[in-house]
Amino acid sequence: xxxxxxxxxxxxxxxxxxxxxxxxxxxxxxxxxxxxxxxxxxxxxxxxxxxxxxxxxxxxxxxxxxxxxxxxxxxxxxxxxxxxxxxxxxxxxxxxxxxxxxxxxxxxxxxxxxxxxxxxxxxxxx
Length: 126
Prior knowledge:
single chain
């Protein structure tokens, strides 16, 4: 989490004039960003549910967070990551970050599917 925070703090400000906000993005960028955030939310919900399960049979596999992280830490990391993705899309030419968003969303989708297969349903996000 600290590494992510440092990276985001070193990222230039989004206040420069060339920055494109969500309304100026292409349909593809909007769809990919929305999909990324949806999958991130489901992954966060699965993690929160698993770590609060009374069986104590689940541990976090992401080495950045450790075996039993606080859900607020994971939420903060997800918010910071989403902000970084937003900045990355807005600071580039249209559709220039789409492949990266698609790959990252695909990886997170695989994690959500894996979590579902080990007993933590994706439906806990709803």
